[in-house]
Specification:
Blueprint: H1 2-7, H2 14-119
């Protein structure tokens, strides 16, 4: 089959044949270069898609972490309020204990005084 392709070149001058050969070589070279560039383009497109996916994954992870952080902040606020309430309740109970302790001491003194009076 290549002989049929080459048939049209018969009878051409050596100078023209040389130029045709140079042009064919240049075409082959350009085809190879185009294939290489196409491969590079496809590789770069694949890398770009991979980076886009990575960015998307990182955005999703950041959003998840932001929600988790918000939830933890709300939990901390809730725990802080509970701590303050418990602390207040403890202060109230300590105050009540102190009052009752004072009343107990007063009652003990009254009992001792009454016992002393009875002994007399």
């Amino acid at each position: 089959m290549s002989w049929a392709v080459e048939e049209w070149k018969e009878g051409l001058s050596p100078r023209v044949l040389q130029k045709i050969h140079e042009l064919e070589s240049q075409v082959d070279k350009l085809k190879k270069e185009r294939q290489q560039r196409q491969f590079q383009l496809e590789s770069l497109e694949a890398a770009l898609q991979k980076q886009k996916q990575k960015v998307e994954n990182e955005k999703n992870e950041a959003a998840t972490l932001k929600r988790e952080n918000q939830s933890l902040m709300e939990l901390c606020d809730s725990l802080e309020k509970a701590k303050q309430k418990i602390s207040h309740d403890l202060q109230v109970k300590e105050s009540q204990v102190n009052i009752q302790s004072g009343q107990l001491n007063s009652s003990k003194k009254d009992v001792e005084r009454l016992e002393q009076e009875l002994k007399r």
